[in-house]
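Internal ticket #5521
Category: modeling
Description: The requester needs a full-assembly model to guide mutagenesis choices. All entity lines are attached below as received. Residue total reported by intake: 826.
Assigned to: D.W.
Attached entities:
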Amino acid sequence: MLGRENAVSVDEARDLLARHIPAKAPSVEKLEIGDCYKRVLAEDLYSPEDLPAFSRSTVDGFAVKSSDTFGASETLPSYLNVRHEVFMGKETLFGMNSGAAAKIPTGGMLPEGADAVVMLEHVQAVDESLIEILKPVAPGENVISAGEDIRRDEIILKKGSLLRPQDIAAIAGIGLKELSIYEKPRVAIISTGDEIIPPGTPLKLGQVRDINSYNLAGLILENGGEPVKKGIFRDIYDEIKRAVEESLRDSAMVLISGGSSVGIMDLTAKIINGLGLPGVVFHGVALKPGKPTIGGVVNGVPVFGLPGHPAAVTICFDVFIKRVLRMLTGACPKHFLERKTLTARLAKNISSVHGREEHVRVSIEEREGELWAVPVLGKSGLIRTLVLADGTVIIPPHKRGLQEGELVEVELF
Amino acid sequence: MLGRENAVSVDEARDLLARHIPAKAPSVEKLEIGDCYKRVLAEDLYSPEDLPAFSRSTVDGFAVKSSDTFGASETLPSYLNVRHEVFMGKETLFGMNSGAAAKIPTGGMLPEGADAVVMLEHVQAVDESLIEILKPVAPGENVISAGEDIRRDEIILKKGSLLRPQDIAAIAGIGLKELSIYEKPRVAIISTGDEIIPPGTPLKLGQVRDINSYNLAGLILENGGEPVKKGIFRDIYDEIKRAVEESLRDSAMVLISGGSSVGIMDLTAKIINGLGLPGVVFHGVALKPGKPTIGGVVNGVPVFGLPGHPAAVTICFDVFIKRVLRMLTGACPKHFLERKTLTARLAKNISSVHGREEHVRVSIEEREGELWAVPVLGKSGLIRTLVLADGTVIIPPHKRGLQEGELVEVELF
């Protein structure tokens, strides 16, 4: 029963992985900014220019010297002469002295000498070239100054930023067309099992189709990796070893999926141990589902041996693989922004075994405006339980269960 | 001041859109299942076969007739004869009578006549062909029966499902290779403004680069649409009208971005009204930022006129466009699973104007284990405020502000 009796805790397993997987910057590629959504920035990004390059009005109105408007009111307006107009997209070539105003559209370039804009609403025209200002403006009011948004040479985004729509927009705004981006880590998926057949092959009795590689590929894609399916291999030492060896050469992480029986998991552990140091770092975790999981590192590359039950694959990915993959992408997000959770009331008592972290699949239902987490019952070998579930509730190892009606945090799929 | 004085509320604006945008199923395409992650299923999916196709063991052990084990214990074991072995991936051709047991691996096919599996741990070998059963098993114990996961002709996923990794895995499990998928809705982005230049063009004073189309394209991608940039157009009625007209022919939604001044927004409204019915359904919303927003529908196609301020673009997308886009994708998710939120303590008092829904950008900070939402100050014309923010806090129209220390719900970007 190797590894089952001396299972480590989830935290210990995570620590072992963190201790043995070396920090290593991914390779870098150059990409057009339009291809960089959801990608990870590989450089600290400094602005090559001021944004905006000139002081702009944020309203339709009249550019003025603010000091000319101090004290102005509806009963005692300031009178200003209008000699010029600012046009959108054109450089404003005239300057302004005290007593003058210039018509300006939203986004227009402020004339030299002006330091604020009075909104149209607070202006009354006396004639073609004379206006009344009915309300004072402060210096800088209704203006975005040159460089106020982003200053030249200012750092705008840090290495490791996961680029969002607004980040790409800011980068477009400062005139950059290409970025240094971390390449997506390639994650090899090795499916094993004498009974597993690829989709499209007619099914004989005793055989089942490859389910887990489709689950893993999707999870890898969602988390910033590039899945590489290596194929389905028989439960033979040399065959699987050759597949892992080849994968270690061209992948940032290797997932061996399909073992469930003790014999197969031992075979997987032996292969990992035979390929490089430190080899297996844990074999068996106090986790349900996912107990037989193997975590290993071979010459710096993380290698996981995953139990074959579909639910175990999803939970192991969530508990271990996801955070390793995130590290391999080079992204440094605020960790608390990564979790997608929801608070709900538990619809049923759940018991659990003390000393083991249990992940219970739940579907979320709305009943009279309140959200309820309804446990999805069924063996962890059933893929359907995952299809019916919206997420999981985690019962920590020190608890023996959760009570109906309790508020629980659901980690959404 | 058309549309500014008679601004509608956010809820009224949403109702107007819902009332005027017709429900219309998107076009359908056939895709390989490996290309269907995050796509929307265009058909109710029935299983063509049982999963599994045969009864399988979920453990390493011995297949038995459960009735032969009733009453068995360590002191009084049941004795069973072992004449056969089950092999992985092979059809089990022998049957079993009372008094017999067959060695079976995890995943192996149960012999005819067996109805349960005794785990290896509860078996002791007497000799080559005789074993002691030390613990009884119930009928069906350690077995997944034929069709127990998914039954033939059972509905497995409904039309409108947004396909997750586990859904694709289940589909692979029942042998399907292709799916009917809704095509992604094409969303036209029309950038307008005499001062806007494309990236790569040298910047002259008075000009600014196109920022908003990069923000919108990313938001559209994230929400299941296909952004189609139509280019940058001058603020001339005929030019913009022609671009909108062309977009209406090949797009499921049209976004006109860039207007901020009253004149430009009125131009946009006039164009929308001139192209078909009902035309503009609202012009001006009690929303900050995003007040000048125009919502329209032209012959069934939603058309939005968006203010040019970057923050307004993001908020308008969040408040209006996202839900319209989701509808156009054909997806029918549980709405409460769609929001990515986080509860945090507000780090500063914020005041707001009664009667207006305000969206305040915040960054999230962890202080002594607690999450704080720190308002990002700055004009809504600044793209940097969006880069610094992790999400928004919404102040509803009936409130006049929020207090420092209050618990708030942050909608994460």
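Resolution: model delivered.
Comment from assignee: The first strand of chain B starts at residue 28 and ends at 32.
Ticket closed.
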